Predict the 3D structure of the following.
Amino acid sequence: MQKQNKLANFEEAVLPHLDAAYNLAHWLTRSGTDAEDVVQEACLRAFKFFGGFHGEDGRSWLLAIVRNTCWTWLQHNRSSQLTVPVDDELQEIESKDLDPEALLVQRADQLMVRQAMEELPLEFREVLVLRELEEMSYRDIAHITDLPLGTVMSRLARGRKRLQLALTNQMTRRS
Amino acid sequence: MSCQKAQELIHGYLDGELDLVRSLEVEQHMHECEICARTYRSQTTLRSSLQHESLYYTAPEHLKKRIQSSLRKETRPEVSRRAFNWRWLTAGASLAFMLLIGALVWKLAPTSMRPSTDELLAQEVVSDHVRSLQMPGHLTDVLSSDQHTVKPWFDGKVDFAPPVKDFASQDFRLYGGRLEYLNNRTVATLIYQRRLHYINLYIWPAGQAGSSREVASQRQGYNLIHWTNSGMNYWAISDLNSVELQEFARLVQAGQ
């Protein structure tokens, strides 16, 4: 009986956030089938640790588990993607002036944006997805990614710069 | 405000994460500086192209069903039917009767015939170990060879602070950590690696303070060692040979 209650409570608190879970997993794994596996595994884990959930924000609670499951999964299955040393390599990009005209970005179609996002290193992709697609606060993002607030802000800033650079480059090439 | 500072803060401003004073400073600066104003404009454009609904992946309908059915499997056998059903009452009654008989037999049986707590625990440890290696991505929740990453990860997830040490110099590399449910409680699990072998080390507070000697055993081809030290229970399991696992256990004990 208790287990049945637990299941009902769990479904009520967690399943409404399945889209968010899938969206994050899809962006991190870059594949629909992989995202499904990861989300399923994450939900089973979430259920196992549901005792530790005390009615706080169900979405960020679930997303933190999904995020961890994704990283572990990537480590086992796509470890080559994780080897980019992220924090030290951006200097050369930052030193250039790359504030492109807003017009250029406006012309970017969704396909290009998607592709540019998918090519971003994982560390930037995850904070951008959480911020722009899930519209989460820095505090929630920090909780989910287990990063300090300052790092969340600087990763967002760098991620956006990279994204903008990628889009500008693509469009310059095209025109 | 310098441009450099403004360029940093524009993102916080865009995300509505700055306090009022800072926000006003950024606005003021953008009034005066066309470059930063342009950065802001292009960032808002970038944002609006990211927030397009075609970039949001919604979960396919079958995924929800798939998860629900796997959750039901997890909770079996209790979960089956919500509606009251007479058949279940009879089933329940006979189950209760069997339990009563079972309890009687249990009570009457000599203690030596019952599996000891340690033995039951060892069974749990073995199946958990096997499961952790079988399922992809199940081995670790936090993947790091840095004890200063793994230790704080447990903070707030368990109600005790497990000692976390890396023994890489002795060739037992810390691989990560995760939470497990053993012995009716959440326990901290550390994963170590020696060559191609993984060691799961389960840690949780013992009922009482004190220490006990290590006990080694073997089950289904796995070596197990458990001991109590300063009020903490430790269970180590691996397919590593017993000598090296013993060495690992000594290291852990010396490291505390």
